[in-house]
């Protein structure tokens, strides 16, 4: 695998907690197009650094950011954490926030746009297949374990939302990860198959036929069909049945929007998604496992289900953030601070 560093940016970042209200984190106002509150904005020697990197993964150009701790010294050895972004998200949003916060705690952290998504390459655009997302995680591990200053024997994994489900799958077999954590884990296969909160059980075969037809159309050289993309009004968003959807539209379309982020994915991807389940063979995980979720998240059932099935590890913990919903763990300072505090404690013991 060939790795290329595109450019390096030393970023100013205060160590510790951050504060603020629910307001827009405008990527246009950040020189690195970071879309989260408290994001690094400039080169400052001796502070947390961000470096844009690129590498090839199975012939696909991958775009990633590496965050290094304050006073980073390439001659020293640091623990590292791979951070996998949510479905529809990109590295400049919540994944970047958690990577930056981990760097503030002394970790080298990498987060990359999934292949076929964000600023990474691959066509058609927005293919969303579990095998690709899992391979993306292996690829980040490939890259960061060769990065100057990284102690490859102290490599952790953090998966956010859909990235959490794919992290559970990747960690089943990739034993380079010495500990695994998730925040607001989303089991993409279960939801694409059964519907959110198992609300689509009666339409499984219909949706599989639609996905099959979409693939046939692609194979015949026809138009690529997409699912998951909707231009909804504020009124329509308010009527959505679940907090995750209502707050998700608010986060991804308004307060933390980024031009590379989109909900849409190729309809043919459902052929792969609907036969995937993040908990299948989860008992192969034999390393320390921490699963974090909001106590009021309507996605909590997925974390609880995966946690119960993770019987292969002797060290596991389910940590609920009281009062938090799924999306609020992405940005709300009080909840992010709790999650980062728990992650710091967890990685401090396990890496």
Note down, in words, how this protein is organized:
This protein has one domain: Rossmann fold (3-Layer(aba) Sandwich). 33% of the residues lie in helices and 21% in strands. It is built from eleven helices and eleven strands. The chain has a nine-stranded mixed sheet with strand order 1-2-3-5-4-6-7-10-11, sandwiched between helices. A two-stranded antiparallel sheet has the order 8-9. Strand 2 and strand 3 form a beta hairpin. The longest helix is centred in the C-terminal third of the chain and has 18 residues. The N terminus is likely disordered.
Query: CATH class, please?
Result: Alpha Beta
CATH superfamily: Alpha/Beta hydrolase fold, catalytic domain
Largest sheet: 9 strands, mixed
For the secondary structure, the number of strands is 11
CATH topology: Rossmann fold
Structural class: alpha/beta
* Average pLDDT, all residues: 93
N→C terminal distance:
26 Å
Main sheet strand line-up? 1-2-3-5-4-6-7-10-11
Shape: globular
Which range best describes the helical content: under 10%, 10-25%, 25-40%, 40-55%, 55-70% or over 70%? 25-40%
Strand content: 15-25%
What is the level-2 CATH architecture name?
A: 3-Layer(aba) Sandwich
What is the number of helical segments per DSSP (H or I, 4+ residues)? 11
Q: State Rg.
A: 19 Å
What number of structural domains do the residues give? 1
Any low-confidence stretches, pLDDT <50, length ≥5? 1-22
N-to-C series of helices and strands: EEEEHEHEHEHHEHHEHEHEHH
């Amino acid at each position: 695998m060939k790795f290329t560093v595109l450019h390096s940016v030393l970023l100013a970042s205060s160590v510790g907690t951050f504060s603020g209200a629910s307001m827009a984190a405008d990527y246009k106002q950040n020189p690195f197009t970071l879309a989260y509150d408290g994001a690094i904005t400039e080169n400052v020697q001796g502070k947390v650094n961000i470096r844009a990197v690129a590498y090839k993964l199975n012939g696909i150009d991958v775009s990633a950011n590496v965050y290094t701790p304050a006073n980073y010294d390439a001659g020293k050895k640091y623990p590292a954490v791979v951070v996998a972004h949510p479905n529809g998200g990109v590295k400049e949003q919540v994944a970047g926030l958690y990577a930056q916060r981990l760097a503030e705690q002394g970790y080298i952290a990498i987060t990359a746009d999934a292949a076929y998504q964000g600023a990474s390459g691959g066509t058609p655009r927005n293919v969303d297949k579990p095998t690709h997302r899992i391979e993306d995680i292996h690829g980040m591990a490939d890259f960061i374990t060769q990065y100057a200053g990284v102690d490859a024997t102290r490599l952790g994994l953090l998966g956010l939302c859909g990235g959490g489900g794919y992290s559970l799958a990747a960690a089943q077999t990739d034993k380079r990860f010495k500990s695994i954590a998730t925040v607001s884990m989303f089991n993409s296969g279960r939801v694409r198959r059964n519907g959110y909160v198992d609300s689509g059980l009666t339409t499984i075969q219909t949706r599989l036929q639609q996905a099959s037809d979409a693939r046939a159309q692609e194979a015949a050289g026809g138009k690529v069909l997409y699912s998951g993309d909707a231009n909804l009004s504020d009124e329509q968003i308010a009527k959505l049945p679940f907090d995750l959807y209502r707050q998700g539209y608010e986060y991804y379309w308004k307060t933390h929007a980024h031009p590379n982020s989109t909900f849409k994915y190729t309809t043919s991807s459902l052929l792969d998604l609907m036969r995937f389940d993040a908990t299948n063979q989860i008992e192969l995980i034999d390393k320390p496992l921490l699963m974090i979720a909001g106590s009021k998240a309507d996605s909590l059932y997925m974390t609880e289900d995966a946690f119960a099935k993770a019987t292969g590890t002797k060290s596991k913990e389910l940590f609920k953030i009281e009062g938090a919903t799924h999306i609020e763990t992405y940005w709300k300072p009080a909840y992010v601070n709790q999650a980062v505090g728990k992650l710091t404690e967890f990685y401090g013991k396990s890496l």
